[in-house]
Amino acid sequence: MDATREPTAAGTAGHGCTLPAAAQGGPVSHALSRVARLHRTAAAGLLRELGLYPGQELVMMSLGESGPARQSDLIRMLGLDPSTVTKMLQRLEQAGHVRRLPDPVDRRAVLVEATESGARLLAEVGRVWSVLEEESLAGLAPAEREQLLTLLGRVEASLCERDAPRA
Length: 167
Fold this sequence. Notes:
With 167 residues, the chain is mainly alpha-helical. It is 59% helix and 10% strand.
């Protein structure tokens, strides 16, 4: 198989995976889907060591980056369903990593902030993400990693443009 992992006439792509007939028109989309699933599974295993579920690390990263934030802003920044974020925050709060308080500017809003435990957890999340990065990209040379990052950025930009509101 060539390095581009394009489907062959037999309908296989990368590592001998067979492309379903429905995916023949979208081999890159199929590969992205498989890689995303495998990456999420690997992340889940590493995060489990910290007592986290996938996605909770993104909440902690957001709080680490922005400081305390309204729950509604976290929902918007993460692009997740409000009920999903609420459940994540409940679990993180029960574990002592975040606290939710009334927003002093708008008492109807909820402000979320990381606790000291959450700040320590964030350092561990960074370590886990470094391990995940190395495991995920072990077969790529530094230049290939840069190229992959550039290409994924372009794919992301295309998808963001697709979802942007039209004037």
